[in-house]
Amino acid sequence: MSRYWSALPMLVMVGIPIWTDPSDIVIAVAGTAAVVCAVGLVARILALVTAGAVIGAIAYALATVDSADGADVVAATLFGLALLALLDLSEFVRRTRGVAVTAAAVRGQVTYWLARLAIIIAAVAGLLLCATALAMIIPGALQAALAGIGVVIAFAAALRAGIGRPVS
Amino acid sequence: MNRRPTPQAFGLATLLAWSLFLGILCDRLELLVAAIPLAIGFLSANGSRPLPRFALTHTLSEERLVEGQPATVNLRLKTEGAIPAVELLSVLPRQLFLVSGTTRTLQHMEAGAEAAWSFEVRCPTRGRFDLGLTLLRFWDRSGLWVIETRLSQSVEIAVYPAIERLRHVPRPLRTHSSFGNYLSPRVGEGIEPGELRPFASGDRIRRVNWRATARRDQLYVTRFQEERNADVIVLLDTLSDCGSSPHSTLDVGVRAAAALAHAYLARKDRVGFIEFGAFLRWISPGAGRRQVEVITEALLPAATHFSYVAPRLDRVPPRILPPDALVIALSPVLDQRFVDALMDLLARRFDVIVLAISPVHATRRSLADSAIDVLACRIWTVEWHAKLDALRRRGVAVAEWDGAASLEATLAPFHHRQRTVSR
């Protein structure tokens, strides 16, 4: 698999903040993110790709803060998917460099990614529906507290599932 | 077996943390929504997946090769459980070169499935090499977890030196008492007529030379020269080595030693081998096809080992270094300890021929053609020739060889030498 495939999510990651708010500061930060990511992809250094993605997230945060529009959930989901795909593709390309990859292995990996994409879209939709329903039930002061607790629990659960000690 | 999260897992954790942090800091929903795919990416990791039972088998197209000959390595992986992605790296020894195929592959294995692949290797230099080490990485589909393990099996490949066929070899000055191919000056039983003498009581009638008898009016009998064999000892200097494999002086010396041993054994001589290096290693003289194998096997591990010790040939037992043996010494003539050993052999009246393998030629092969290198090599050649001339003046028979010319032609001056009566 060519490393140029990784450029596609990188373009999405850079494009969404600029599309959200095409101000000079956002373009500058997103451009920096693109350069850092591109260097990471060419040199096959995951740390640089991650750094570029973090700068991209900062650009997106700046864009959303500056933007007067309401929350664009579709763009946000696309941005998150682009970050995930960027890491997945760049790392897959890096670790299969110089390796004879069988067609079955590539097919299996692409199938996995597509299945995960479907789960993510369903999860985003489900979570947004739940959030809307809860917003109508819970009074305003408790919403922020609940959101904060939810964030901490989500992060802890993700870490536990992702890099926690495995059950042997 | 080593199970660990990959750098991608840490990268994803960093991104997730930043997204959540920025979302809370900016109080914007978008960044929290953007964190959902990242969190699900994390949740999809399966770090507790047990390693399925698997079996990896290696097969070689040839287990015994000659230098430069290619061999195909076939690998077959069989697994009992499903493996999302397994990366295999067959570790090649430094001396082997990959000709075709790949030593690294990424496979997806269904339960009970079997995967096979092959690659071709070539080894330009002699030795014994193990191809049985395989590194395996079992990747989780998410790429966030990996299990690393290594499998070491005994898959040995033996690469023998390429041998130049020699029709003529230096003739030993002294013959042995056993039957062989050399005409001994001694008369007795044989097929080669030697001399005439008057008939004596007890001579067989079939030995009477009727032509001489008719000419001299007296019975004459023909005496025949005996055909005898000789002991030949191949002395290989492993104290020093110049140049890079497979054209180093030691590699060239090993090829010459194998060629000489084959040629002398084909002439029914007894051939022995002594490795003169940091330690002495020897093969006692013997004849026959088995000895060809024994000496070739003994030549495979020949290598230089640094040592301050000066090996002494007078400690070698006479059955290994017989007093009437022809000693053919193969050396780049760089180490004074080897020169001293030659002088010791000469002082003990051994029949010694030194095949001096040019270290300059071997080194030139691995150098650039810069003016300074050419000049340095010319100076070195002059110095080396001076060293060889000093040996010649002390009575050592020296043949100079660059490794590229024909060995038979190089040794041609020693093919016919003066013979002496066998002991």
Structure commentary:
The complex is a heterodimer of chains A (168) and B (423). With 168 residues, chain A is mostly helical. Chain A has a domain of 99 residues. Chain A has six helices and one strand; from the N terminus they run H-H-H-H-E-H-H. In chain A, helix 1 packs parallel to helix 3 and helix 3 runs antiparallel to helix 4. Chain A is globular, with a radius of gyration of 18 Å. The model of chain A has no long low-confidence stretch (mean pLDDT 86). With 423 residues, chain B is an alpha+beta fold. Chain B has nine helices and 21 strands. The radius of gyration of chain B is 34 Å and the shape is elongated. Chain B folds into four domains: 42 residues; 107 residues, Sandwich (Immunoglobulin-like), CATH 2.60.40; 46 residues, no CATH class; 184 residues, Rossmann fold (3-Layer(aba) Sandwich), CATH 3.40.50. In chain B, strands 18-17-16-19-20-21 form a six-stranded mixed beta sheet, sandwiched between helices. Chain B starts with a strand and ends in a 13-residue tail after the last helix. Chains A and B meet through helix 3, helix 4, strand 1, helix 5 and helix 6 of A and helix 1, helix 2, strand 5 and strand 7 of B. Strand 1 of chain A pairs parallel with strand 7 of chain B, so a sheet runs across the interface.
